[in-house]
Each structure stands twice: as structure tokens, then as C-alpha cells.
Design goal:
By secondary structure, the protein is α/β, with parallel strands linked by helices. Helices cover about 40% and strands about 20% of the residues. A hairpin with a 2-residue loop joins β5 and β6.
Length: about 270
């Protein structure tokens, strides 16, 4: 089993925590957009509070460990590895509970190029524990507004994990899907499950719009988030997102493998 000390060392060495690649400028820009209720950064969440920029900085300092000084406007963000480890422990508890209850689960990602392997390992372990890993709306069209206008996408499942491909686009061999913050794929999956009389998830595991979209609908949701995605942390603060793990969500895919081993061991789900 990966020790806490070894995990902490890995988080810092891989820049999953500590000084990370996400810039302070980018995070502050996202905080301003969130305060203005820009749907691109709300990720499907409808905040109950006002959440101005100073409040968001304070929240992110508490939940992630970024600087709480509003005069710090440049440089790289910092994530406190102790906060990451604490959140991973809570994440593992939720996995263990889902496994014990054999809860139906839905996994989806807007970061398939980075996090697909992480989620796929969780899907395999939960399936082995008796959980139904749901795959509703396979192949369904989802139209998403992007910076290039509205683009048509297909919802697909890879190793039990939902993601989207742009319809008609040339796919690079081995490319798992496209990056998205949208909650629309999650909504399409849930709508299809209802229409087809399939079970709804009792737990959603993912990122971006998968977590915020599920939490907004009252479904238990857990997942990782970077310092420039305040919506997940606001959702947690307002009681609609169960667990958010503060990490850099855009490092090499292999760097997440030790986190997978750690949470599965903690959850007693190691295969």
C-alpha cells in the first residue's frame, strides 16, 4: 500500500500539488467569470450564494491552499498536499460506501486525455465489487456550445467511462475524446436512463460538468478539480458536491496512477 508519505512526495514531485502549472492569472479570471455567473465556468451549478471574487479567493484558499492575498495576481497557483490527501481519504470513504451498498455508479470525464485511466480503474474496481457501472445514452448526439460555435458531439463510453467525441471530426489514433466543461453530456445520460427505464446513478464520479451537473440535481458526486475550477468547490461549500479533490487536472496521465492505488487501497477495493 502506498504510504501517506510516499503519496505526499509523489504529489509534489509530479506537481499535482505544491506549485502547479495553473497560473494565478487564469484562476482569477475564472473567479471573475464565476462571480458574473458566466455559464462557461458554472459547469451546470446554480449557486445559492452571491460569491464575489474576494469570497471565492477565500474559499479556494481554504479548500486548495492558494494564496488568499487579493494583491497576488501573477505567478503559479499552489495546492496544499495535505488538503489533497485529506480529500483523497474522503473520496475513498465514498467509494467504499458505494461498494458496500452495491450502488449503481456513473463515471464521466471532460478530461479524457488526462484522467480516463484514473476513472477506468475506479470503474473496474467498483464493477468487481458488485456495483452496476451505468452506460446510458451510448452514441447519443449532444450539441455543445464551444468557442467555435455550437458543435455536435457523440457520447461514448470507454472502459466504463463516459466522454465525448466531436461528430465528424478526424480522430487521432489513440485519442480518447475531447475536453469539455459542459454539464450537457451528464444531462443527456440521465435523460436517456429515465426514458429507457434504466437505473439512475446513486453516485457520479467525474470532473467539471459531470460533478456539478449531478450535484445540482441532487445526486451524490465526487471528483478532482484544479484551482481554476471554483464551481466544484462552491458546490461542495453549498452542500451539493460531496467530495472535491484539489489537484492539477492536466498533468501526464501516468502521474494519477499512484492516486488510484491509494484510494482503492483505502477503500479496500484493490484488485
Amino acid at each position: 500500500m502506498l504510504s501517506v508519505g510516499a503519496l505526499r512526495a509523489h504529489l509534489l514531485a509530479a506537481r499535482l500539488a505544491g506549485p502547479i502549472a495553473t497560473s494565478r492569472e487564469k484562476s482569477l479570471q475564472r473567479y471573475r467569470l464565476f462571480a458574473a455567473r458566466d455559464p462557461r465556468v458554472l459547469l451546470g451549478l446554480e449557486p445559492e450564494g452571491e460569491w464575489d471574487v474576494p469570497e471565492l479567493i477565500g474559499l479556494m484558499a481554504d479548500r486548495c491552499g492558494v494564496s488568499r492575498d487579493p494583491e497576488t495576481v501573477s505567478g503559479q497557483d499552489t495546492i496544499d498536499p495535505e488538503r489533497t490527501i485529506q480529500a483523497l481519504n474522503a473520496f475513498a470513504v465514498r467509494l467504499r460506501t458505494a461498494a458496500e451498498r452495491r450502488s449503481p455508479v456513473l463515471l464521466g470525464t471532460g478530461h479524457p486525455d488526462r484522467l480516463l485511466g484514473f476513472y477506468a480503474s475506479l470503474a473496474s474496481a467498483l464493477s468487481a465489487a458488485g456495483c452496476a457501472v451505468l452506460t446510458p445514452a451510448q452514441g447519443q448526439r449532444v450539441d455543445i456550445t464551444t468557442r467555435f460555435g455550437v458543435r455536435s458531439h457523440s457520447l461514448v463510453y470507454v472502459r466504463g467511462v463516459a466522454l465525448i467525441h466531436e461528430t465528424g471530426a478526424q480522430h487521432t489514433p489513440g485519442a480518447p475524446g475531447v475536453h469539455t466543461h459542459s454539464p450537457l453530456p451528464l444531462r443527456a445520460a440521465l435523460s436517456a436512463a429515465v426514458a429507457e427505464g434504466e437505473p439512475l446513478p446513486e453516485l457520479v464520479i467525474g470532473d467539471h460538468g459531470w460533478v456539478c451537473g449531478a450535484g445540482q440535481l441532487g445526486i451524490e458526486a465526487i471528483g478532482p478539480a484544479d484551482t481554476d475550477d471554483p464551481a466544484l468547490f462552491v458546490g461542495q461549500a453549498e452542500g451539493r458536491v460531496a467530495v472535491v479533490v484539489p489537484i492539477d487536472d492536466a498533468v501526464r496521465p501516468t502521474y494519477y496512477s499512484p492516486l488510484t492505488r491509494y484510494v482503492l487501497n483505502r477503500a479496500c477495493l484493490s484488485q
